[in-house]
Amino acid sequence: MSAPVKKNDQLTVYIEDLTHDGNGVAKVDGYPLFIQGALPNETAEVHVLKTLKNYGFAKVLDILKPSPDRVEAPCDYFKQCGGCQLQHLSYEGQLKWKENMVRNVMQRLGKIDAPVLPVKGMAEPWQYRNKAQIPFSTNDAGQVIAGFYKTKSHTIVDMDRCLIQTGEADAILSGLKKELTAIGMQPYNEASHEGMLRHVVIRTARATGEVMVVLVTKKKKFPQKEAAVASIVKLVPNVTSIMQNINSDKTNVIFGDETINLWGKDVIIDAIGDVRFEISARSFYQVNPQQTEVLYKQALDYADLQGHERVIDAYCGIGTISLFLAQKAKAVMGVEIVPQAIEDAKRNAELNGFTNTYFEAGPAEEVIPRWYKEGKEADVLVVDPPRKGCDEALLQTILEQRPKRVVYVSCNPATLARDLRILEDGGYKTQEIQPVDMFPHSTHCEAVAWLALA
Ligand code: SAH
Questions:
Q1: Is 320 in the pocket of ligand 1 (CB under 6 A)?
Q2: Any idea which residues are catalytic in this one (predicted)?
C-alpha cells in the first residue's frame, strides 16, 4: 500500500485515538497519521510532515472542532518538556481515556471479557512525585540552567517550577541555580565533560515529611562542600539528609557507584498505609506513594487473605507489596532479581517487626519452581512484573501448580492482556480488572487483575 497523503499536504482529519506518546491518531483511508497536540474526538486541519510506508506524521494547523475535554495546559513548559504528555486533556478526560484504553487492549489483544472498572484517580493530581532528578548544566551564555529534558533528547529545558513535583524540588530548581553561581560551583557540561555538579536528586517522604537531597558530582572533592550544604539547608528547611554521589564517567547514567554522607542521616523514612520503608539515595521506591497505597490496597483486597494463606510475591522489588500482604497473610515469600532490593526488603521487614516474611534474590521464573519442588507452596500468587510482563516459564509454573488465586499488578496493559490470555487458556478465569492512575498527565496506566481457577 502506498501512502494516500504526501509531505506538505494539508487536509482535515478526525482524531480517533492517542498513542502512548500522547500523539493524536487519525486514519486517512486506513493509513494512520500521528499528530502532536491533537486529542481524540477532535477535527483538525493538519500539515503532513513525513510519510513512511505504513504511517505518517503531521502537525496541527488549526483545531476546527476541539474535544470537550481539551483544557489549557497549566504548565508553561508543557510543550517543550518531555515529562508530561496529557496536560492539554482535562483530568477527567485522562481517566476516561485510560479506562477505554485498558478495556480496548484487554479485548483486542487478550480477548479478555472480565469487567474493567473505572480508573481510580487522584483527587489532587499535582505535586505527586516524591522524587525529582534534576540535571544541571550551563547555557551558551555560561549561565547555570536546571530543569528536565526535552522529549527524546538530552537538551535541558531550564525551569523554575514543575507542577507534578514537590515544593522542595521547586526550591532547588529556582534557588540552587543562583546559589551555585554565588558559591562558585560549576555545573557539569555533558559535551566537554567539565564542571562538577551533574544532577541534584530530591526525595521526599510524604508520610513523615523527611527530605533527602543528593548531589551527584564528577569528583569526590570539591571546595564548595560546606557552602553547598548551607545553601541547601537554607533553601529546603525540612531537609533531613544530604548525600553526595560520585559519577566520574562520560555517561548519561545519573548515579555512580560511590555514595557518601555530607550532612544529617543516610536514609529517610516513609510509610505506605501502616508499613514503614527506609529509603536510601539509590533505593528503588514508588514515585507516587498516595496512589501506591490505592494500588496495594486493591491488590490486598483481590488477594482476599483470611490469615491462614501462604503467599508468593513475584517481582517484589524492595518488598513493598510483600509487606503489605504480610499484615494479613500467614507467610509471604518474595523474589526479586536485584540483590540490593532484596537487602532493602529484608531490612524493611525487620523495621516493621514482621517475622512471617522470607525474601530471596534471583529470577522469579527459576526461584519459584524450585520453591515448589522444595514443598514451599502458595495459596495466592501475586506478580508485579516490569513492562515486558511475566516470563513464559513463570506462567507455566503457575499453570502447573495452580494456586487458587492469582493477583496480577501491571504497569503495561498490553503485556497484561497477553499474560491473562495465557493463564485463561491454561484454566484460570480473569474476574475483574481495576486500573489505577499512578502517573497523572502521562499516558501510563497501572492495573490490578485477579484470576481464579475456572
Ligand atoms: N513490586 C515492586 C516492584 C515492581 S517493579 C513494587 O511494587 O515496588 C518490577 C520488578 O521486577 C523490578 O524490581 C525488577 O528488578 C524485577 N525483575 C525484573 N525481572 C525479574 C525476574 N526475571 N525475576 C525477578 N524479578 C525481576
A1: yes
A2: 411 (nucleophile), 411
